[in-house]
Structure formats: structure tokens, C-alpha cells
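Hi X.,

You mentioned you wanted examples for the new student's onboarding notes, showing what a folding record looks like when two proteins sit in one file. Here is a clean example. The first protein comes first, with its sequence line followed by its C-alpha cells.
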Amino acid sequence: MPRYKDEDPAIQVYTVCDESKYLIVRNVPALGCGELLMQLFSTYGEVEECKPMDAEECGPFTDVYWIKFHQISNSRFTKRKLDESVFLGNQLLVSYAPNCESLYDTKENLEGRRTEVLARLKYQRH
């Protein structure tokens, strides 16, 4: 019987710096469906860029896309909704890409989270 520590965790925990307005979408069918993918992701918020990533490892019949949202809150919501969802017969794998952020993006992310937490605390006091 495996020990508790040897088992995989049941949930994934993200810190503020792990989240990002940049997403990597894997397992997209290699059918030239970038416009359809952009339309799908745009339903969750304003997408600034959506482009295929040629340098990423992918299967012979799948592509990897890089998506940049205007706001991190839209990125968070989209990841929660579309990770492991089915798109044109394939299960999408959506992950954050904090390595794509600039220093300004990271600062904006931290300040935004600080504002959200302070607003929640203020709401709870009333």
C-alpha cells in the first residue's frame, strides 16, 4: 500500500505568480482551426493574441497554441472552464505560461491580486 506522501495530490494549487494572462493550449487538432480556437477563447474575455507555437512538442496530429488575454481574470476563468474540455474531438490541455510574462505583467498581476484580496476583506467586514 502506498504511503500518503507517495500519492499524487487530488488538486492543483496555484500561487499568484503561477497564474498568468498567457495560456498554452495543447492537444489542438492540427486542422488549421486557429480562428475557431480564438473564437472559443474570446467568449471568456478579450484575447489580444492567439498564435500557433511551432517550437513546442506536440503529436503528429495536434498543435500547440499560445494565447494572451487582456486581463488575467479572464485567463483564470477560461482555464477553469476549458481545461480538459473537448474541442473538435480532442481534449484540450490548458496551462498557464508565467514564463512569457514581462516584469511589468508580473507587477500588474500582484497588484491586481492585492486589490482583489483587500476588496474581499472590506466586503467581509460590512
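Then the second protein repeats the pattern, sequence line and then C-alpha cells:
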Amino acid sequence: MSLDLIIPAPSATDEARRQIEICNACRYCEGFCAVFPAMTRQKSFADGDLTQLANLCHNCRGCYYACQYTAPHEFALNIPAALAEVRVESWERLARPQALARLFQTHGVAMAGLLVVALAVFFWALGALRPVEGAGFYAHLAHNTLVAIFAPAFVLPLLLIALSVRDYWREVGGGRVRLAHLLRAFDSAARMKNLSGGHGEGCNFEKGDRFSDRRRVFHQLMMYGFLLCFASTSSATLMHYLLGLEAPYALISVPKLLGVPGGLMMAVGAVGLGWLKLRADRSLGAARVWGGEMAFVLLLGAVALTGLGLYVATGSALVGPLLAVHLSTVMVLFLLMPFSKMVHGFYRLAALVAEAGQPAPSSANE
């Protein structure tokens, strides 16, 4: 009588550890991105070390196409996918509540879509209680009503993210932060250095073994477009409360000069990133969360496009329904920040700060 032994599959962390140890012995890809110099500091890797390496990885995939140990070799290395799985697991594990994070990662499109529809109906119904006075958007929803709704929807998710990043810092053993570490990390993030590839020619995300800088450009359009829109909202808030200048604002005004270009940049970035995700090989990332990542891109695009549409429709009968849809997309983006890929910016910045505080990596010849 024979008994079949069932050997459980290795966890994502154990598989990443196996692959990283092989990479550390080879070191052919040492200059490709921040991951490979960082891994040369040690010969064995604790779980926290792998979490840090995974969040340093930007999934540019250059190492995969340069590697001589990918399948069908017996080592079957796939570092982009291995680190992507660890990275996503770290976001899920450190999020609060974890169940909601896991749900969004696997059912992101449906979850975001349902929330947008439900909140659009809510804002549309709320518009029936329109204020007696008000111009522009405030003719449909009072300013104080919007503040009462959106302030907690923005602040509470940020608090959850702050708690998650604190736990991340403890897990990876982040040390004391100095100004020089912050400056180096922000410089790397602003230039998106790790999306430029080992030779500065771009990465291999959507073109296999051919270099492309498109992903970096679309990421920069998205990031800087979002920052411009955030600056637009912040400037409008200051103008409202400090200067007594209430919306709507003219085209030649700080909020519009920041918000319109920012919205256009976000829209182009969202279309570009969505297009690249459709072209890219899913097996080189965390395939199980592809839907959640695509939902995040679509949500950012919806925020930008509805905001631009709202500006174009100013003074028409479309303002009411467009305002309800735009506010619902913004609200969903805020509410899902701790669980969607929006959180990756916070973790990657933390990873870059932690890396900036580490000693210089050892040479491959040591």
C-alpha cells in the first residue's frame, strides 16, 4: 500500500527567497535597478528583507529578459513575478482591514464600479436638496455639504495608510531617517529612476527584450497630473478660506491653470498605462491582482475625464449629472486608497528612504 505524499507549494516569500539567493550568487543584473545592489548586502534573507526588495522593485522586467536561468532552465527564475507576489502580499497583510484589501485586489473592477454607481446615485439625490444660493458647482451642492462629506473620506484613509507604512517600516527594519535620505528618495521617485532600466534606455515592460521609455513617461504624466490636480484643489481651498474668493473660478486663475493641465496629463497617463497593461505579459507580474490594478488605472482615468467634462459642460444642464459622477469617482478613489494600488506610492517611497539609509552595497567581486 502506497501513500501519496502531498507537498505543499512554497509560499510567495519562500519562492522569492529561493530566486533571490540564486540572483545573489550570479549578480549579472547588478546594475539594473535598486533591487540588485540592495540584495548584495547579505547572503541570507529574512521575510522583512524580501518585503523591502519587493517594494523596491518597479516591475520593469529587464532582469527577466537578461536572465539565463528563466524557464525552461531548471532554476525557472521569474524575479518580476516573484517579487510582485511578495509586494502585493505585503500591501494586503499590512492594510487595515486586510479582508477589504484582498477583496479589492481580486475583484477591483466590480468593486470600484459598484461603488461609483452607488455614490453617483447618492450625490444625484443629494443635489435635489440644492442650496438657495450658490454659483457653479455650489448651485447643485452646498460648499459645507461637500466639505462635511469629503474631509473624513480623505483624512481617514490617509490615517490608515500612515499606520500601514509605520508597520512596513518596522517589518523591514528601517532606521533613523535623515534629511539626506529623504532628498535622495524623493529625487529617485521624482525622476522615476528605477523605470529607466539598467542602461537608462527604459524598461522592458511591454516590449519583451526591447527597451521602451513609455511606461516611465505615462507614470510621470499620471503622477505629476495628479499632483497638479491636488495643488489645484488646495489652492482653491486657500483662496476660499483665506482670501474670501469663492468658486467658480475663471480660466485664468490658479485653480484652473493647475487643474486643467493636470486633468489632461492624468487622462493621457491613464490611457497609456491601461494600454501598456493590455500589451504586457501577465505572467511577469502578480497575475491574480491584474483586475485590481486595472481598476485603479480606470478609476484615475475616470476622475480626470469626468473632471474635464464637468469643466467643459459649465453652464449647461449636464453639470448636475456630471457633478454626481465626478464626485463619486473622487470619493471612491479616496475611500479605496489604503486597499488599491494607490498605496504603492507610499510603500515605494518608504522603501527608497530605507534604501537611502543603508550602507553602500558590496561589489560583485568581493
